[in-house]
Amino acid sequence: AKARLRQLMRGQGFTETVNYSFISDGAVDALLLDEDDPRRRTVKILNPRSEDQAVMRTTLVPGLLETMERNLAQQVKTLKCFELGKVFEDCGRDDQPHEEEMLAGLWAGARSETEWFGKPVACDFYDIKGAVESLLAALQIRGVVYRTLQPAEAPYLRADAAAAIMAHGQPVGYLGELAPAVSKHFNLKQRVFIFELAVDRVQALIPDRIKARPVPKFPSIARDVTLIVPHALAAGAVCGHIRSSGEALVEDVRIFDVFTGAPIPVDKKSLSVRVIYRSAQGTLEDETVNAIHQRLSVQLLEAFDAQLPP
Questions:
Q1: What is the pTM of this model?
Q2: How far apart are CA 41 and CA 241, in angstroms?
Q3: Contacts for 17 with CB less than 8 Å, ≥ 6 apart
């Protein structure tokens, strides 16, 4: 399974890096971890080779950030790399450290290689999120959602540009943009995006069998709905509500536009959702789809205290 993870990451253009399992004692401070954070329970090395290798790592993030720092020193400003390795948590003097396999990735700089006919485009939050989505989709892991990150979960990420990765109701990792204070500590003078995944939890979600469905014989029909919702509402909650509505003809749901600013109130945002309807028995009639879509729209207005645009 680890070979498969490596293959999929390389297929997305990430280069594997291998760092020492030792980090500096101050690395956890640099990540702004809370005092009671388990990642502060480091295993100290009795005879460290240097101050930079004084404790066993509890996260792969410092190693990737140091890799980025070294690349920047060589004027390499675009980097896509990942590491697959173990982290260690101190369980007390009389017990062996707890070991866990993790996969972490870093993306900074340009979204793609610069060509003579186009200007470079910087990568952003959605690029690193897309890399994680592609990885989990290739592993056939379904039911993945992204929720708002709690501050203590990954304080080294920007709170407004980070998410917890959830699968089947359990957290499997985090992703987002590195917090400016952490970037400053590692001398990273550009935006950096990272993700972390717990390999054992991910592997447990990979299905033993892959089921195939016939290619649909009948065409789909798309209907859109735009809602004015509270700014803090996660877009995924709206999609999840539609998917769990019990409407058998709903095939897919996706967000295709989010807008903030005038004339939308400051504490609101405009959310546009596209619902794909399809039947396996025959071609759908507009009247049938319109009735279902109207019913779903009313449910959304009530469930999320939403309004229709003026």
A1: 0.86
A2: 40
A3: 63, 64, 67, 81, 82, 83
pLDDT in tens, 268-308: 999 999 999 999 999 999 999 999 999 999 999 999 989 99
Summary count for the chain: helices (H), strands (E): 8, 12
d(C-alpha 23, C-alpha 67), whole Å: 12
Do the bridges between strand 192-198 and strand 157-167 make them parallel or antiparallel, or are there none, so unpaired?
unpaired
Task: Please identify every stretch of the chain with a pLDDT value under 50, giving residue numbers as ranges.
Answer: none
Between CA 170 and CA 179, with CA 175 as vertex, the angle to 5 degrees is 130
φ, ψ of residue 75 to 5 degrees: the values are 65, 25
The answer to whether 278 and 223 have CB atoms below 8 angstroms apart is no
Instruction: Dump pLDDT digits (tens) for 215-256.
Output: 889 999 999 999 999 998 888 889 989 999 989 999 999 999
CA distances from 278 to 46, 234, 291, 292, 294 (A): 64, 26, 14, 12, 16
Question: Alpha carbon of 165 to those of 63, 143, 145, 202, 244: distances in Å?
Answer: 21, 11, 6, 11, 20
The predicted pLDDT at position 47 comes to: 82
Place of tokens 């680890």: 2
- Residue 272, C-beta contacts closer than 8 angstroms, at least 6 positions apart: 224, 225, 226, 227, 255, 256, 257, 258, 259
Cα separation, 172 vs 85, whole angstroms: 16
